[in-house]
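Note to self: keep these together.
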Amino acid sequence: MPLARLSVPSHLAADKIQALADAAHGGLVETCGVSPNDRFQLVSTYAPGMMLIDPTFPNVVRTPEASIIEILFLEGRTADQKRRLFRWISDCAVRAGFSADDIMIALTENAPIDWSLGRGLAFGDQHRPMEGATPAPGK
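Structure:
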């Protein structure tokens, strides 16, 4: 149950932003075992001058399309999975017209107790029916 935050320049076309969001989610599904339905993403656009990103650190050349993807997810992924995730997202972004140097990705892991998906319950308690609750239609 990852949460992805995409920070992109406001001048990017909507279809390019969507392609980057799709790359982030597709990478999680293909490399980290995330369910295709488990998509939670926040996209923030920034006006010129509001994304202060070093244009060359470390040995890259960023353009005005430089974007940052932050992914928060449950602990337990291997170093190999994380490397494959980075490559997957980058490759998809390049196919969508980005420069590989323009895609920065930061991962943060935490434990199930650090999540509440609703009802004020910790994640481990989330899937148990609430006492007196009426199930949703079709459940």
